[in-house]
Amino acid sequence: MIDNNLRTEEPMRKPQNQPKVADKTEWSTTISELRRRLGLSQTAFGQRLYSSAMAVSRWERGAQEPTAESYIGLGNLAGDPLCWFFWGRAGLSNEDLMRVMPTLKARLDKNESHDYRIANAGGGHKKSKIPQLVAIPLLEVVAASHGEKGDSSSILHGSPVESLMAAPREWCPNPSSTLCLRVRGNSMSPLISDGSILAVDTSERDPSTLDGKIIVSWHKKMGLSVSRLKRYGPTEVLQPENGKYESVVLNGKQKWKILAKVLWWIGRAP
Length: 270
Fold this sequence. Notes:
The chain is of the alpha+beta class. The protein has 7 helices and 9 strands, in the order H-H-H-H-H-H-H-E-E-E-E-E-E-E-E-E.
């Protein structure tokens, strides 16, 4: 179980509406070169970024620029040093990383070469004393606890990005599937408080592997919701942490859809 006392600094600044100035040919060519370096077709490359082959084609032709979320994924795929180009297009800077990872700054100050070791999504680990990091999009999406109503969209990937965050690679087993969203309500307190930020893995959706895990689910009327999935024999229940709130029994009448497993969460100190 993740320590519920985990805290961090305030989230990084919101990406600018206009990306950093760069020649159209530069970003489109860089994307194309990355795909070829990874040896992926446009279809396979798009799947790694939750995009279509058509979208990748538009990027490479310079007809349409990637979204902030796609740029973050491109950076995680590329690894150091190319990640800084893609993350910069999304609004993430070295200063942002320093703000949320002060221990990294202390280590880098002692390293004259500033040899960053950034995680390469889907690749192997590189041995280094410097923490491997991935960038994670913080979405403009809210998951409600019991008694509240969450955002209505059942699709997380492709949602508008509010801000960007950096986290240690070991906290994100599947970087390309990792997103952050906010929580509304108190039914998961004292474990997860109102206003906390959840990091979720959208590749973890199989109920048979999630018994006892905290998840984000979706219901047509209730929208996005956060709760603990519990199995009692053949019965599955969405259970709050706070005993003042009622559990939800999943049956044929309750059309709930599991979207992601919660990996960890952060919140402001009281």
